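Incident review: delayed structure delivery

Summary: a single-chain prediction request sat in the queue longer than the usual turnaround. Root cause was a stuck worker, restarted by the on-call engineer. No data loss occurred. The affected request and its eventual output are reproduced below so the record is complete for anyone auditing the incident later.

Affected input:
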Amino acid sequence: MASQSGCRSFCSGLRAIEARMKPSGINRRQFLRGTPRPTELPLRPPWVTQLSLRSCTSCGDCVTACPEDILHLDADRKPAVDFTETGCTFCGECAEACTHEVFKVTDGPAWNADVIVSASCLLQSGVSCQLCTDFCDVEALRFDMNHPPVGTLRIDQETCTSCGMCVAACPTSAISLKPFIRADAA
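Output delivered after worker restart:
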C-alpha cells in the first residue's frame, strides 16, 4: 500500500513537471537529454506578422469573428490557426473585427507558410488518394504520375495560398503548413 501511494505521488509530480514544460515545446526526454528541439512557430491568422502580433491584446474578437472557426487562442493567449476541420477562405472578417493594428491586410500572401507532405501520405503506401487535390481551389497540388505505382504529390508553392483546405481534407494528417518568417516581415 505504501509503495502505491509513493508511486502515485511520484507520477503526479512527473505529470506536473510535464504540464509546466509543454508550453515551452520541450518534452521531458528532450530536457533530460539536453537536446531540445527548436519550438515551431504557430501559424497565426492571415495578415498577421510576428511584429504586428505585439499589438495583440488577446481580446479574442478575431477568434469569435471567424466564420470557419479555425482560430483559437494559444497558450500565450494569441490567435493561432487550426486546420483540423476546414481551411481559411480569406474572408477578412477576423481582420475587420480586430480593433488593434494586428492585421495588415495586403494584396500579397496572407501568411508566410509552406505546405509540407510527410511520409504518412497514402501515396507513399501505394494507395491512390486525391482528397487534397479535390479541395485545392487554386490547383497548387498536382500528381506526378512518373513515380509508380500511384504517383507522387507535387506542390506549387508559388501558386499555393496556404489556405489549409488540403490539411483538413487529408485522412492521414500527412499535410501540414510550416510557417516561416520573411526577413522583410519580421
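Verification: Strands lie at 71-73, 79-81, 113-117, 141-144, 152-155, 175-179.
Action items: add queue-age alerting; document worker restart procedure.
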